[in-house]
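Tutorial, part two.
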Amino acid sequence: MPTPNFPSSRLLALNQKPVKPDGSYVLYWMVSNRRMVYNYSLDRAIAYAVSLNKPLLVVEPLAKGYRWSSPRFHQFIMQGMKSNMHAAKNVALTYYPFVETDEYPQEGMLRTFASSACVVITDDFPCFFIPQFVRKLSQIAPCLSEAVDSNGILPIRGTDRLFTVAHSFRRHCQKVLPDFLSESPLSSPTSNLSLPRLEPLGDDVISRWPSAEPLLSQSDSQWMTNITTRLDTPSTDLVGGRCAALEHWRRFKHTRLDNYHLKRSHIDVDATSCLSPYLHFGHISPHELVRDIQDRGNIRPEHLRRSIVDGRRERWWQMPPGPEAFLDQLITWRELGYNRCANDPAYDKFETLPEWALATLNIHRNDERPYIYSIEEFDLSLTHDPLWNATQNQLRKQGTIHNYLRMLWGKKILHWSESPETALSIMIELNNRYALDGRNPNSYSGIFWCLGRFDRAWGPERAVFGKVRYMTSQSTARKYNVSTYLDQFAPEQGNIDA
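Running the prediction step on this input gives:
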């Protein structure tokens, strides 16, 4: 059986069925940790395969009918598949990518592949359709099935406490994080791996669900010719996959990390890591980013200031301010969202806002709005405010919004919608339709923060917002140089909204 020192806090048992030692292979159904390194799910699957002396079959499927599916997300995921296909060559496992098309629907695939497995491993992810998929797997797999958490430094099910603000979650991290920093998935799990070779899958299987390897060997422009997605949202210039993720990380850590604390909110400079899409699709792991930063600063978990449990952002890591600021975003803010989604199935519902936010938004729900726009007008950047239009143009064209402007984007949707519930639905729809890092706990954190989640009441009390934090395009333009941004994404003339 797998090694006993595998962290149990990462395991979610999906059923009580036994391992089938007479099965043909160990099956890893890769759905969110889409990488061949630094992946607890892959480590777990390899451990089972070694202990059972069975082949390991890694299936990475891509459905076409999920909500918000589009060429934008398909291309990014398929570029990741191409990276995985190259990484799996000449190693002792079988990587099997599958891309659903009209000709080859995915229906029945999971049940068929699981029927021949000794054990089934999949990824534990607390958001979007993955929780429903995991429940389905628990019902149809005829053998032991486990979901494995490789989402962040802290296990998402390590505590069932819901943290209401970042400060309290940061204090929690300061208590427990040093112990988890000494744990990590393997950096090279397939090195020197020796497993039996997988016998060819039957013609009945291959004919129904053919490997996407021939498709992935074509150019990106040819991939979409026979794939029907729900939306026609075009792909962006941002390339997916592990090689691209590592290149973004390399450039960031060598040229921007040291000044991250000073520049990350500046709109006129390229100061961010651009890693959130790669983290979302699992092309890079937070474990390797944290380890790289620690190695760079020669910092080990035992060096952390364990005596400090006060929620402070600075000096706890014993690092320069740039890396500390980035780690606070990568761990505190990112994993705060994962904690919410893992412990609150209603994470995307308006009613889960803090009581103070619900109360103040309800008091002001009938306030006169200076403008009211429909979702179609928001979508097409048809508001009166050129800076807001620029943010939506960037989202629609590039699949991202500058970090600081993303907050303004959400705040003004609240300001110009007929109700806070309508504003929430518009934010979720537009973000999940266009953002490469959408449909993610971090995205829901940002959207709900615009309505008061993870924040506190602010004064003075204002129309529409009540005590929810207020932002304007005019104040943003006073604080930061937005002229270059406007020239790029909203060259039309107009007055920035107050």
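The chain has a mean pLDDT of 94. In part three we will examine how such features are distributed along the chain.
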